[in-house]
Amino acid sequence: MRIGIIGATGNAGRALVAEAVKRGHETTAIVRDAAKAGTTLGTDVPVLERDAFDLTGADLGAFDVVVNAFGTAPDLAHLHVDLARALVERVRGQAGPRLVFILGAGSLRTGEDGHLFVEDLRTTPGAEAWIAIPENQLKELDYLRTVTDVDWVGVSPSALFAPGEATEVVLGSDELLVASDGTSHTSTGTMAVAILDEIERPAHRRTRFTVGDR
């Protein structure tokens, strides 16, 4: 399968590239800096050097699936929403690709009252420095839920999303998952396995699911 990965040199992107290549997929890193990609991913991974906002319908149409692992600084967090809109608009009316969006945990529900996890995040000391990211990832999901004419799926990690090897994958829908150690976390390796499983055997269409470590 032809898979393009936006943000391939980030933590999640690197894990996705490694998992996709391991499974034998025709994998392309979509990055702004080809030299950095060569250093980070190795020279065997094909690269499309392009700012994600400059991708055309033809660029995207060369793939069966495009995974958006885009990351940015808190003061530019609105770009999560802007890029989702741009990707949807550019594939609308085309036969493909399928779009996979890595979202945040803030849009998941937690507690006995089922409140959004972003409400807890807002009360974390120092949250003002980074809260724009989960808030805009929530807006990104809200936007995607209005899209009915493009094949998309969103994937949210658990509360802590950090580099690490894959564990046994646990899937959920809209509730924050808790691992066997009593905390809520997803490694980038676990996320990569779950996304590649979904790409190979689609089980979710125009919806969001969540992934956690066992």
TrEMBL record:
Residues 7-198 form the NAD(P)-binding domain. It comes from the Bacteria. GO terms for molecular function: oxidoreductase activity, acting on the CH-NH group of donors, NAD or NADP as acceptor. PANTHER family: FLAVIN REDUCTASE (NADPH). This is NAD(P)-binding domain-containing protein. The lineage of its organism: Bacteria, Bacillati, Actinomycetota, Actinomycetes, Streptosporangiales.
